[in-house]
């Protein structure tokens, strides 16, 4: 009260206090706004990338990947994988480039205009052919190619262009061509626009690629090869051992027989502390992840639905009846009354359809079956199929076509062709239509691996016209009409079929596919069971201890921001993003999250528990996952000591075989020494030291104590060693040292660079 009275008596002081408070409020607000930056996806070496820019690059990268994949009918699963790969690719490139740019600046490395010209000058027929052959035979992976190489593949694949001049001409003319196709409502306009965007996107990244390559080359040249090490590597790769082995696995000794104390764990932790180095902040999370699956009731429900359709199809004797039945179903496969080649069903991973038409007569119906998950979309389907009929038709048709916008002109052209003229000759009389629709009577072959019966389309007012080219006999000239959605006017395509070839049998099959999914009742029951469990287990310790009894599983995993972002994209759904935002931005150690619905289909539940926040440095010895790892290491060491003590005085393999109960003996006649080094370096070292015809004695190996006679050791190329091979090894090691994101120079640079990865929020 005294303070308030003082302020009332001194209005100047009151104003200054109010002014100070306002200033503090404004400053605090400014600081909060500057720190929040809600649209920031990440920051690397002082360079930020905002959400809009990141998403634009992801969309461009995704478009590029789709163009390079050359897959016209991608499944939902394939599209999801490309979307995931695109997000990761954009971030990795942003990260690598900005790290390298900072380091390259220290050496004065830049990329000039002439270097850009040199990079584009590699756009020639020889390099294009090399890339296409490498991709065809699996020697080159798209993800390993530079953007200039991707540009060459795009141009060669879609434009049949193998030189820079041809590509530049395409870029010069493409906008005009797109505009003309759009006027015609031609779907190729979108394809061409996507191709243009992919090419320009590649161009934008060429300079960044060049700087990365220049820096990597500089680092590679800075390494000095050790010829002794290179020769040892060579010898290991070419050496083969013939071994007679006695093995005593560590599992012969029970864990209870080798107790470990906390003091021992602490001491061992200090010896192996670098194994638990934290190069970037992580969260140690407990994850209770539940996948909702269909119940027996769900199975019976979908089975009954499909079985009812099966029974109805068995009674159908005409295609019209089959069509009526199929229109009333909720089948994931649309019935179009079309006939397809047998190979089409095999290519669609529908082997059951192929078996039906190969082994059953027309009219047969396959029994209702729950099939294994579809390889294209990953969904399980309950299916039944009816073999409706067959037809023979050509697989290829040679024809000419002309597009006109006047019915009178159509009749005149058809009459002229029947009188002996050609569509290419008639096109010269209709120059305006040729310019508008880019069809001038050229001859072409088209493959037709299907046959569609001639049926009048619903709402079609152009009676008597064909609806598909496969129905037109050789030698016939006809037309079909289609309304232009932009003008509302009808345009007419005149077709003259010149020839057909490769007549084959095609099959009409009514395909019923009902997705086998959980019901709302099953979803609710699983959610209620999870909620009930969590209401009784409110701590991380209780959740983990009692999960198995309730039918759940709890995993422990360390997540960096990058791991969280990639996991979020892989699992999908808004729930996974919200879960990681809670964990990284809100949770305190020991907290448990609410239940999140995750997955692109919202078919999973996730509960997170924050065990620990791990800053850069070393994970604490008593962190449960660390303690468990060190304890397991000590248990194995103690088991090894017990077994080694039992084998201490053994002098030969026959005695070793009888020394320890449960030990086994086996022959290993062709063991590659290099592979052995990778899998069990301690045992490999003993083999190398022992030499041909000698006994190794006991060796504490990766999974047990091993003893071996080295029966033989041969070198497949003893005279091949040469300094040139040493240079090859040197080059390989140098490239690995630079390129390896996990162990090489790039990994060291990442650990020494300020990286803020906030992708998990988006």
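-> sequence recovered:
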């Amino acid at each position: 009260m005294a303070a308030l009275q003082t302020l009332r008596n001194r209005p100047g002081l009151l104003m200054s206090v109010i002014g100070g408070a306002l200033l503090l409020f404004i400053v605090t607000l400014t600081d909060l706004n500057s720190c929040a930056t809600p649209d920031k996806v990440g920051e690397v070496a002082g360079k930020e990338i905002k959400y809009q820019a990141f998403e634009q690059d992801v969309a461009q990268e995704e478009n590029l990947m789709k163009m390079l994949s050359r897959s016209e009918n991608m499944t939902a699963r394939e599209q999801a994988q490309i979307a995931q790969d695109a997000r990761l690719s954009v971030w990795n490139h942003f990260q690598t480039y900005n790290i390298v740019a900072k380091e390259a600046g220290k050496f004065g490395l830049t990329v000039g205009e002439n270097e850009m010209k040199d990079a584009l000058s590699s756009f020639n027929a020889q390099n294009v052919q090399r890339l296409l052959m490498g991709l065809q035979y699996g020697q080159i992976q798209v993800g390993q190619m530079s953007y200039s190489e991707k540009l060459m593949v795009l141009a060669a694949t879609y434009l049949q262009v193998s030189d820079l001049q041809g590509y530049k001409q395409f870029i010069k003319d493409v906008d005009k061509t797109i505009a003309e196709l759009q006027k015609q409502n031609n779907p190729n306009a979108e394809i061409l626009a996507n191709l243009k965007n992919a090419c320009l996107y590649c161009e934008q990244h060429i300079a960044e690629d060049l700087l990365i390559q220049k820096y990597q080359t500089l680092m590679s040249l800075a390494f000095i090869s050790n010829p002794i090490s290179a020769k040892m590597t060579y010898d290991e790769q070419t050496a083969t051992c013939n071994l007679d082995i006695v093995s005593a696995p560590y599992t012969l000794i029970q864990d209870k027989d080798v107790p470990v104390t906390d003091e021992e764990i602490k001491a061992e932790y200090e010896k192996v502390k670098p194994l638990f180095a934290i190069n970037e902040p992580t969260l140690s999370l407990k994850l209770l992840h539940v996948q909702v699956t269909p119940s027996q009731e769900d199975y019976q429900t979908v089975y009954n639905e499909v079985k009812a359709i099966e029974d109805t199809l068995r009674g159908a004797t005409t295609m019209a009846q089959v069509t009526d039945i199929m229109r009333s179903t909720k089948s994931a496969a649309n019935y179009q009354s079309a006939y397809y080649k047998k190979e089409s069903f095999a290519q669609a991973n529908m082997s059951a359809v192929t078996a039906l038409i190969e082994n059953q007569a027309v009219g047969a119906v396959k029994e209702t079956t729950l099939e294994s998950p579809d390889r294209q979309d990953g969904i399980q389907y309950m299916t039944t199929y009816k073999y409706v009929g067959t037809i023979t038709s050509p697989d290829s048709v040679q024809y000419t076509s002309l597009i006109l916008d006047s019915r009178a002109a159509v009749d005149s052209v058809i009459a002229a062709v029947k009188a002996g003229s050609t569509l290419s000759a008639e096109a010269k009389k209709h120059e305006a239509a040729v310019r508008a629709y880019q069809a001038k009577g050229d001859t072409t072959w088209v493959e037709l691996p299907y046959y569609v019966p001639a049926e009048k389309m619903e709402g079609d007012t152009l009676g008597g016209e064909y609806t598909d080219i496969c129905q037109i006999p050789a030698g016939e000239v006809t037309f079909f009409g289609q309304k232009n959605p932009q003008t509302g006017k009808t345009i007419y395509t005149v077709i003259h079929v010149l020839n057909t070839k490769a007549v084959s049998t095609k099959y009409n099959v009514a395909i019923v596919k009902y997705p086998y999914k959980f019901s709302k009742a099953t979803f609710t029951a699983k959610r209620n069971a999870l909620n009930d469990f969590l209401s009784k287990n409110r701590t991380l310790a209780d959740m983990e201890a009692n999960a198995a009894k309730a039918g759940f599983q709890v995993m422990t995993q360390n997540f960096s921001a990058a791991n969280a972002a990639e996991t979020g994209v892989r699992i999908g759904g808004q729930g996974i993003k919200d879960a990681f935002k809670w964990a990284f931005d809100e949770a305190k150690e020991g907290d448990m999250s609410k239940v999140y619905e995750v997955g692109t289909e919202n078919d999973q539940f996730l509960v997170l528990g924050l065990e620990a926040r791990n800053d850069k440095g070393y994970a604490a010895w008593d962190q449960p996952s660390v303690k468990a790892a060190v304890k397991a290491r000590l248990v194995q060491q103690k088991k090894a000591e017990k077994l080694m003590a039992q084998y201490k005085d053994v002098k030969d393999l026959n005695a070793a075989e009888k020394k320890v109960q449960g030990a086994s003996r086996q022959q290993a006649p062709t063991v590659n020494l290099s592979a052995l080094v990778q899998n069990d370096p301690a045992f490999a070292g003993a083999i190398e030291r022992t030499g041909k015809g000698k006994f190794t004695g006991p060796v504490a190996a990766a999974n047990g104590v091993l003893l071996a006679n080295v029966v033989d050791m041969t070198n497949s190329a003893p005279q091949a060693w040469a300094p040139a091979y040493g240079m090859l090894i040197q080059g390989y090691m140098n490239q690995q040292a630079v390129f390896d994101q996990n162990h090489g120079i790039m990994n060291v640079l990442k650990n020494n660079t300020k990286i803020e990865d906030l992708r998990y929020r988006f």
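The longest strand covers residues 490-515.
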